[in-house]
Write a structure and sequence with these properties.
Elements: H1 14-26, H2 28-38, H3 46-58, H4 64-97, H5 106-126, H6 132-142, H7 147-172, H8 176-212
């Protein structure tokens, strides 16, 4: 009985191609491990392996439902781990050493106030920006963001992040190279915008402090 040709994946750009053997060997375990670590403060290519797994699902080599399910669970657990690290380790470090880097007293209270007002939006949007994706859970835990509120926004952020990248990877097919490069460029612009906003806020704080003195 002729079963037809085996499914093949489209040509992959460098970072995706480099991860292909790892994904082919470990499958869903590779997705779960890298996505979890990527969301728990370690700079591993979790987002890249998620996209690659979705490309494989589009080529019939993996199940899209399986990729999404594993990615969601791993992303949520990873951010929760980061939160716990910040809650029980970060606060201790800040209280002990924060004065050496200017993060103590009034500044720590302002950081906690900021997360009380805007932490949900930060946790939701941080998933789409490298560096913030790895650290938002730790920051939320360190600044004392309410656990239930964090968990809600963590889950919403994971759904959005996994949903967007798995859909893009699944539908991209032979266009994944161009789409991947455009996504990296957009992510860089977004990170630069965040850095610019932070720089403006820090500059305003410094000016206010000088005026008071």
């Amino acid at each position: 009985m002729n079963q037809g040709p085996a499914p093949t994946t489209p040509e992959l750009p460098g970072p995706l191609a480099a991860l292909a053997p790892f994904l082919e060997h470990y499958g869903y375990l590779a997705v779960g491990l890298l996505v979890l670590l990527d969301n728990a403060a370690l700079p591993v290519p979790g987002q890249t392996v998620l996209i690659l797994a979705a490309v494989y699902a589009g080529a019939g080599q993996l199940s899209l439902a399986g990729v999404v399910a594993v990615g969601l669970v791993a992303a949520i657990l990873g951010d929760c781990l980061g939160y716990l690290l910040g809650r029980y380790g970060g606060r201790t470090l800040v209280h002990r050493y924060g004065r050496y880097v200017g993060l103590s007293g009034e500044r720590l209270l302002r950081a906690e106030g900021f997360f009380t007002r805007n932490g949900g939006k930060v946790v939701l949007g941080a998933r789409f920006v490298d560096v913030l994706r790895q650290t938002n859970g730790i920051i939320a835990g360190t600044t004392g963001m309410d656990w239930r509120r964090f968990l809600l926004w963590n889950c919403l952020g994971a759904v959005a992040w996994v949903g967007v990248w798995s859909t893009i990877g699944y539908l991209a097919g032979g266009n994944i190279d161009q789409i991947y490069r455009q996504a990296l460029r957009f992510q860089l612009y977004l990170l630069l915008a965040v850095v610019a906003v932070v720089a403006v806020l820090v500059g305003r704080a410094v000016l206010r402090r000088r005026r008071r003195s």
